[in-house]
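Section 3.1 - Work completed
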Amino acid sequence: MFTSAAFFALLLTITFAKPVRRDLAVHESRENIPSGFVKEGPASRDTVLGLHVGLFSNDMNGLEKALYDVSTPSSPLYGKHLSKAEACTSIIVEEYVKPKEDSTTAVLDWFKSNNITTTKDTPAGDWLSFSIPVSQANELFDADFTTFTHQSTGKQAIRTLSYSIPQSLQGHIELIRPTVSFPTPKAPVFQVPRPVHANVSAASCSGGITPACLQSLYGIPTTSTSQSSNKIGVSGFIDQYANEADLTTFLQQFRPDLPSSTTFTLETVDGGTNPQDPSQAGTEANLDIQYTVGVASGVPVVFISVGDGGDGFYDITTYLLGMDSPPQVVTTSYGETESDVSIAEANKLCNNYMQLGAQGVSILFASGDSGVGGSNDASCSAFVPTFPSGCPYMASVGATTGTGPETGASFSSGGFSNYWGIPDYQASAVSSYLSTLGSTDSGLFNASGRAYPDVAAQGYDVEIIVGGSAGYVAGTSCSSPIFASIIGLLNDELIAAGKSPLGFLNPLLYSTAASAFTDITSGDNPGCNTNGFPAASGWDPVTGLGTPNYAALRTAVGL
């Protein structure tokens, strides 16, 4: 038996071994495990977690104003993008984004008092990273880190349904991640079972969508570009690898006017790789590379392969923000269900897109492939927004099918965000659509939310090469790289003319360039046991403003 002295000595040891938690308050929580995940059990106490803390930025309202100033055609500052480097301009993004000094000091002091070392993730210092074992994380944040498995992929993730921070830090810490968010990037592309057309290089689209078909349909130029500083970035996730041999075959068959040696460069994040064994060629990655290299004639393309060692969407943005010269266009053919990501994390990631847009980077995402059903489809009782298409600082790309005329693809995801309100640039266009829609689908969506997609492009019967063989694929993941190629070509012409690249596109798209799109007025995007939204004259939640007309876009951007 313990003596009284021994008992009190043990009690003191236990008390001082644990972090002081008396002022902790719940910072983020979620009631349920997201659909598609199952709980396995408590995470091993010894597992080391790589965590990130997001600090409140100094002046995001100021950065948002600056973003719109440089992105709105009627603004006298249009095209005068901000820089992250003070040597380039006196107006730098970091001045808006960096936390206040007292926030940084308070957070660093708290980590230091708990013997935790942090490093800066971003140049502005608004993101810090640190590593601690599960046992310490559970104590520090009054959390219950648990192992969850995503049923369809089998991938496991350690998350908690709630965590707390000291009350004294609530005005300084925006969020800790990954904690309550369950992001699982999905590649929207899917196979189309049909015979490969023999006349693959014909400008006619009757045999499927090829670069020659797109050039004919949208008026895309075939002449090679001249500006080596102009680049297109292609995001790669979930072990999707872009095969160089397949690209060579694709160019030989579909772009014989381009050198078959034309290729792409590779950047890696989180231990990403790009093995070249034909058996590892990725359908999604090959599609994205072949319809950027093969459509944006001569524009340098960078494949950014993100490994499984981190959190893809977040990590690629911090990587891009750390680059001195990021690609002027970045296309991503992956998405998530909006509600799987916490509001705090979604906002912080969206603000990263704001920073990139202010520096002159056009961020494009495929809108998704489940109509209004998100990842739940028929089981949903209300329309399910996709992420990050609801973020107002990037352009979402929907899909069309057919060429005589084009119609909205039934799988093209679109709708209204539950996280972000409608931005001014699209308020008029969306209001007109809602008036036309009337009471249809009333109560199933947030009519005051940011609406998407913004634009559309071909997304069905798109021919690619995978593992040396031709085949057809479909999805909005076809549409996003196609549209990115068009922006890349316009940027090349603008830079050659001594002008700025387009950067954040949406204020331009909904104003000066609105008439530069072919309006798609037929089709719908069913889901949740409904017909979804119908396409209509003007903007709609299936095809956005419509599909591009290159000549009209040249005029709209001042070429």
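Second construct:
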Amino acid sequence: MSDLHIRTTGQAGHITLTRPKALNALSHDMCLAIEQAIDAWRTDDSVALVILDAEGEKAFCAGGDIAQMYRSGIAGNPDFARTFWREEYRLNAKLAEYPKPIVSFLQGFTMGGGVGLGGHVSHRIVGDTSKIAMPEVSIGFIPDVGGTYRLAKAPGRLGEYLGLTAHRMTAGDAIHAGFADLYIPEDAWPTLKTTLSETGQTDALTQAAQTPPASALADQQSQIDALFAGETLTDVINLLRHGTSDFAAETLATLEKLSPLSMAMTLEMIHRLRGPSLDIRKALELEYRVSHRIMEHGDFLEGIRAAIIDKDKTPHWRHTLDNLPSVAVSKMLMPLGKDTLDFKESSMNIAFIGLGNMGAPMAANLAKAGHTVTGFDVAGTTAEGVAMADTAAKAVADAAVVITMLPNGQILRDVAADIIPHMAKGAVLLDCSTVDVDAARAVAELCTQSGLLALDAPVSGGIGGAAGGTLTFMVGGSGDAFAIGKPLFDIMGQKAVHCGASGNGQAAKICNNMILGVTMIATCEAFSLADKLGLSREAMFDVVSTSSGYSWSMNAYCPAPGVGPQSPADNDYKPGFAADLMLKDLRLSQQAAEAADADTPMGEAACELYRQFVEAEDGKGRDFSAMLPRLAARKRGE
């Protein structure tokens, strides 16, 4: 996009902000593009580190695009800003927790959103033009994007001072306060960036670093600690009013112009966060409580109006310094319940290949949850809310996650060979088919060779579970891939179990369904025997469902009609889980048993019985629990 230049150079992923006329202010789209880039580079072995910089001499990034927030807020639509903040805060957390070095070059103004972007990474470089600040209280907001995290960690009472006054830090101040790491003269930066790209190492940074300029904040530390020692805003104001120094008078004059509510919230947040349990996500979650409410219950819109819309510099705050009820602060900081910041991906480009009886409702559930889903199916089937592509290759082109739901392992291999060359580096191939372990592992290896992540995630729960979003996923693959897929599993199902390395999801499904096939046969045999012994099916169920014969086949999916909870048996055995599919899964279990030299006599017997039922009798197209009427109609030895 024109506001960013994202590329890889040598061993570095390189992101340059390219809006110098707007002081490189962050837009929503810029945040999403940066997030997508660092997500891809996280697992790209060719990228050893990331460089963050910006065009122009005036600013690395002077903040976020607050004018657009103002327009949406005035129009009565706070959700635009809430979405922006949720996704920006998620990016801030990812930057702070990134597993590879990130080097930010913070020239000129680095304020608000700029601190969130470049102020939490592993290597923060400042120079002679650097001016770093959290100025949000001047527009009726609070230091956000993790700003309260930095302020709470600052030495002494510097956090309170910086958060309430919006003071602009020089390079020396920023290093003293913990907002930067190294001072390097800016004329050395171009060469340093080249070295970082060529070597993929950060050693050159410490070698180039010089003693930072003197910090005025360090010289004022004792005064700041004394004047900002109060627990509440009223305490701080009283200390300043009774101060005798010019510094106290100048600081009081500054605070008298700013939003009292914003300053009081900032002070309370810093005090709540300060301590050994502090982490970036805790700070961001607390900040989002204010962000979520600020349009309707704070000074934010008035602050923007006065600063950048009408530019009259005379905001009319809701409260005065001497008339601020403490409950106003408490209400803004109350937990948000269901709206709590959860750092989940709110929208993702997803491709879904295979829109059959299972795939179509799964894809539709993802689309309903707000994701952009593009589908493809060779039969031309569609799904609600899903855009259709002409080919599988076109469907996957821009997808962060590609989901497949296919009939067997050979088709999975063929589809993977077709789509992998067209997938974006770092994307995830998430296969939900039930296939043989060897196919799952072969596809995972192809993904690894192509710089992709792979998950094999077969499901349990049938068509009803796919439609209702109550599937269980058994997942094999890396932890990083599972973390990306987890929010999608939460939409499509009720449980996802990470079973280990690639292929282990299929192994778990095969073992689970071998148990299911065996226990269903045993359950049907028991009902058939009870019939012939004159024991009613109701009595049989009442005893077994509450004693040692308990099983899922009996208690949740009883094969006897009119007994126990509703099941396919009560619908003339129309399939919830077809006998054909059970035969497929049992064959997979025996294929795996043979490859692993495992003795599975019950699984082998169940496989043969379902083969006979489906291929030689009337089991094809019926539910797998229809084994009961089949057994009930037979005599011993038939």
